[in-house]
Amino acid sequence: MSSSSSSMNRYWIPHLDIHKKVITQELQYYLGPEATVRSFTRDGEDGFLITTPGPCLTDEQIDDICVKSKEMWERQAAARASGGATKILKRPLHQPVVMSKTGSSDSTRRRREGRRGNDSRSRRDERRRN
User: Fold this and answer.
1) 0.85 exceeded by the pTM?
2) What residues make up the domain containing 10?
3) Which of 13, 102, 103 is nearest to 61 (CA)?
């Protein structure tokens, strides 16, 4: 990294009309590879904290991000409206694998053995008393 974190400038902009995914994708295009963005709340208002070695985004760049954000929200809404909710999830690697089940033979066997142990202790205690 050519510049240290102490020489980086930090700017806050409100989240109004800005999609997080869009600003994350576009920021380095506008401000260079060292620029970063993260969600940040300032005085109770949500927004984005931008860290960059140079100046912050221009009004034109922010307008462009807002336009792209609006397009992103419209695409997401269209996908939901077209039945995106009925889409089949493709998660073959996340197929659940049963490790144990309540009431399986192992747990039943352990419960029976536990009872036998208690029964034999009770008999021993009873013999000692007599």
Assistant:
1) no
2) 5-82
3) 13
